[in-house]
Design brief:
heterodimer, A: alpha+beta, Uridine Diphospho-n-acetylenolpyruvylglucosamine Reductase, domain 2, Enolase-like, domain 1, four-stranded antiparallel β-sheet, about 30% helix, globular, B: alpha+beta, Ubiquitin-like (UB roll), DNA polymerase, domain 1, five-stranded mixed β-sheet, 5 helices, about 25% helix, elongated, binds flavin-adenine dinucleotide, binds FE2/S2 (inorganic) cluster, FAD-bd_PCMH (chain A), Putative xanthine dehydrogenase YagS FAD-binding subunit (chain A), FAD-bd_PCMH_sub2 (chain A)
Chain lengths: ~325, ~180
């Protein structure tokens, strides 16, 4: 692990100070829970010279917004958000996605802001030396002809097929959350759809943030239909593993017809994947397995697979159908 | 305290960066098992490294050093965390508890083991023992967090602790047996 220096920021004044310190120095990074930053520093994938510790900034907690939404502070830990009564009652799919992510220890450490900024788990990115366009633009992508069983099938480009790893980002995308940030001279808000960038020709650009821009909070609307929502995660082992496929879904049925629906997929996209085609196919139609199946097929029609991950579209189809069936049956969490 | 290496090219002296520390060794205060300790370490040193290599508290184990095994589990301010992904310097002003501090958490020093330790022995919850300190620290956390209801729940909330010897059924038995005394 390379040598680093360290600055701690704290208190309300610390927010501007942390932003100022990192903005002024390309080799400084923010340090929150460290579960990505310290890991990748040790693997020689990230190479900051200085870490600016933001853990004591007053950016923790889950607050009510006047419009009924919830504001989750960037430094709130995954375990705290999962345990918040308002999140459990109004956004079960968010609570569930958090609890099914990582491990109990990691969830006590990992912050929500850090979760949005976590890096891909592609082995070629993480080994610090294989060709990787994310790590070293123009170097090529070893995953394209390599081991790609866990890689993405939606939103890929010829330069990168790494899957977005976050669980909680999946329901947040389904709910149209907003990411709030601070720069040296402004406050900004990004619709979550604009926050996670597709790899395209620039897989190294994962977010629209400028260097030193600090996530301060995530605003999450709490539409009534989200009270009946679930997060279904399919993986190689039962726990402590990233998703092969996951589904965040909320469904509202009136007189046998779908009157409202939100769907996003994890484990299959280069970004947390909002399934708008499936949503469009469902709204107004019957809440039956046949229409769930058609909707899932519509969403996955453009999947581009490698020989190793060719199972994913079918697995995603089945997982999505099962999620919607479960919600139709009893509306409970899964 | 403001020592800066020339090659960073950043301003030296006073100003907003006056409290920058490192990259060379700096003094770090740690409260470990209720005792104030002082170590001279580089900021990049993990809590696990500081405990094992500086303070000779070798209970927490280095398994993977990348957050995937749980052998390094300790508590920081009462919460179970991974010492391998925690930088020691971030723990100043926090209370660190390791398995060495578990036996007599009330400081009485009467030599009695913590109920979870007793049950790990009674239920034969290990073979080689390498994962055990992490398992025990995590197990107490699991009970305190209210997730030791049944075997399914224990399994899920203990999944961050891998046991290469696969002593899992006995570990769960120990947690069940200890849960009302934790
Ligand atoms: C073994 C393991 C298993 C995991 N399994 C899962 C899983 O199943 N599901 C899942 O979703 N995740 C999983 N994770 C990832 C984990 O959720 C992330 O590492 C974590 O959320 C990152 O948060 P952090 O606070 O630790 O961030 P840090 O590591 O401190 O920071 C991450 C990055 O974000 C930057 N950053 C941090 N905070 C801010 C901010 N407020 N504004 C701007 N930039 C910021 C940092 O500079 C750094 O580059 C796993 C991680 C590990 C190590
Ligand atoms: S050594 Fe920390 S999790 Fe393995
Ligand atoms: S007892 Fe050997 S690793 Fe768990």
């Amino acid at each position: 692990m390379r040598p680093i220096s360290y600055v701690r920021t704290e208190g309300a004044d610390g927010i501007d100070r942390a932003v100022g310190l990192v903005t002024a120095d390309p080799d400084s990074h923010f340090l929150a829970g460290g579960t990505t930053e310290v890991d990748l520093l040790r693997q020689h994938v990230l190479a900051p010279n200085r870490l600016v510790d933001i853990n004591r900034l007053p950016l923790s907690g889950v607050e009510e917004l006047p419009d009924g939404g919830l504001r989750i502070g960037a430094l709130t830990r995954m375990s705290e958000v999962a345990a918040a009564p308002a999140v459990q009652e109004r956004l079960p799919m968010v609570a569930r996605a958090l609890v099914l992510g990582a491990s109990a220890q990691l969830r006590h450490m990992a912050s929500m802001g850090g979760n949005m900024m976590q890096k891909v788990r592609c082995g070629y990115y993480r080994d610090g030396e294989s060709p990787c366009n994310k790590r070293e633009p123009g170097a090529g992508c070893a995953a394209l002809g390599g081991v790609s069983r866990t890689h993405a099938v939606l939103g890929t480009s010829e330069h990168c097929i790494a899957t977005h790893p976050s669980d909680v980002a999946v329901p947040l995308v389904a709910l149209d959350a907003v990411i709030r940030t601070r720069t040296a001279d402004s406050e900004r808000a990004y619709a979550i759809d604009e926050f996670f960038l597709p790899p395209g020709d620039t897989p190294d650009r994962e977010h629209p943030l400028t260097h030193g821009e600090l996530i301060t909070a995530i605003d999450v609307p709490t539409p009534p239909l989200a009270r009946r929502s679930l997060y279904l995660k399919v993986r190689d082992r039962e726990s402590y593993e990233f998703a092969l496929v996951s589904v965040a879904a909320a469904l509202e049925v009136r007189d046998g017809k779908v009157s409202g629906v939100r769907i996003a997929l994890g484990g299959v996209g280069t970004r947390p994947w909002r399934a708008r085609r499936a949503e469009d196919a469902l709204v107004g139609g019957p809440a039956t397995t046949a229409s769930f199946d058609l909707a899932a097929r519509a969403e996955l029609a453009e999947a581009r697979t490698t020989p190793m991950n060719a199972f994913k579209p079918e697995l995603a189809r089945r997982t999505l159908v099962r999620a919607l069936e479960t919600l139709t049956r009893d509306g409970s969490q899964s | 305290m403001t020592v800066r290496t020339p090659d960073t090219g950043r301003a030296t002296g006073t100003g907003p960066e006056a409290d920058e520390r490192g990259p060379e060794p700096v003094g770090v205060r740690l409260d470990v098992n209720g005792v104030q300790r002082h170590v001279e370490i580089e900021p990049r040193v993990s809590l696990l490294g500081a405990l094992r290599d500086e303070l000779q508290l070798t209970g927490a184990k280095r398994g993977c050093d990348q957050g995937t095994c749980g052998a390094c589990t300790v508590w920081v301010d009462g919460r179970r965390v991974l010492a391998c992904l925690t930088l020691a310097i971030t723990c100043e002003d926090a209370e660190v508890t390791t398995v060495e501090g578990l036996a007599t958490p009330d400081g009485t020093g009467d030599g009695r083991l913590h109920p979870m330790q007793e049950e790990f022995i009674r239920q034969d919850a290990f073979q080689c023992g390498y994962c055990t300190p992490g398992q025990i620290m995590s197990a107490v956390g699991c009970v305190r967090e209210g997730h030791a209801g049944d075997d399914g729940e224990i399994k899920e909330w203990m999944s961050g602790n891998i046991c290469r010897c696969a002593a899992y059924p006995h570990i769960r038995a120990a947690i069940r047996a200890a849960r009302d005394r934790v």
